[in-house]
Amino acid sequence: MIFIYINLLFWLFLKCIAYDLAVTYTIHKFANKLFHAYRGHNYASRTRMIQDILKDHKSINKSNILLLNAGVLKKNPKALNSLGYFYERPSAIAAPRPISEVVVIEGFVKGKVSYLCLNKIFSSFQKAKIFAHLMTIKYFFTPQRQKQIKLPENMNVLRYVGTFGISNTIWKEAWGNCYYYKCFAKGNYMELKKRLLNEINLHRYDHRVPPVNSNSRLENIAATNLHSLMYRNRQINNLLSVNFVKLPFYLAPITIKRWYEEYKKYNYNTKTTIIGTEHFSSMIWKDVKYVGFAIKEVETMFYFYCVFYPKPNIPGKFKSNVLKRRLFFG
C-alpha cells in the first residue's frame, strides 16, 4: 500500500512540474486572404487548424499545449537579446497558469517534424519528452531557475562571425549592434540597405578602389529581377540568378560577409570569371560605380537581389579591376 502511495505522489509531483509543448505554425497571404499553415497543410481559419493540432496531440493535456507563430517570432522585440518567444494559448482558459520553465517546441521543416528543447534537437517526440521531464525535475530543485527559453543557437547571427579575419573585422564595423531584426528592418529595410552598402564600401576601400553609391534606377531593375526570380514559373537565365539570395530572415546581415569570403577561392592572375567567386569580384570591381538593392520578406524568409553598374566580371579586365587588398586596414 505504501508503494502505491509513493507512486501516486510521484505522479502528482510530475504533473505539477509538467513541461509545455509549443506547436509552430505560420500565416500566409494568398489573394488578400490569410491562411494558417501547420505541418504542411493550409487552413482557412485558425479554429480549424487548432482542431487538427489538438487531434494530433491527444496524449498531451490541452492546458500544456501552446501555439508559436513563426511569423510573429521575428518581430518580437525581446529577440533583440536572443531571448523569449510569443506563446499563445489555443483557447481561452478559465484560470490560465504560467508557462512552464521547460518548453518543447515542435517544428516542421522539409516535410519532417522535429522537436527542440533547451537548444537540443530531437527527431522524435518520445526522446524530447524524456529530456523535458529530466529538465523539469532539475529546474524544480534548482534555486535559480531559467526564466526564459533561449532562441535556437542557429538564429544567433554572432555564431557566424569569427574573432579574427578581415571579413569579420569589417562586418563588426559595419553592423555594430544592429544585427537583429528590430534594428535592420527599420524603414522597410532602409537600415539594412544602408549597412550592406557601407560594408561593401569598407571592403572596396580595403582593396584600394573608390566607393559605390546606391542608384534608384538600379533599384528598380533589381526589384524587377527579384520579382521574376520569386514568382515567374518559367526557367530563369542563370546569369540573372547570380546576385540573388534567399535565406532565413535572421541571416540577412551576413549576406555581404558571405559574398566577400569567396576571396578564399579567388586567383588574382585570372583573366576570366572563377565559378564561386563572382560575388567577391563584383563587390570590389574597380569600374563599378553604382549598386541597386531589392529586398523582399515573405514569412520567415529573406529575398535579396543586387545590381552592379557598370557590369563587372568582364573577361580580360580582371587584373586591372580586382586589386589585392592593402596589408593593413585603417
From TrEMBL:
Chain ranges of the SCP domain: 191-316
InterPro entries: CAP_dom (IPR014044), CAP_sf (IPR035940), CRISP-related (IPR001283), DUF7381 (IPR055805)
Stretch forming the signal peptide: 1-18
Superkingdom as given in the UniProt entry: Eukaryota
Lipid biosynthesis is among the record's keywords: no
A Pfam family that the UniProt record links to this protein: CAP
Keyword Coiled coil among record annotations: no
UniProt keywords, alphabetically: Signal
Stored SUPFAM superfamilies: PR-1-like
Name of the protein this chain belongs to: SCP domain-containing protein
Species, as recorded: Strongyloides venezuelensis (Threadworm)
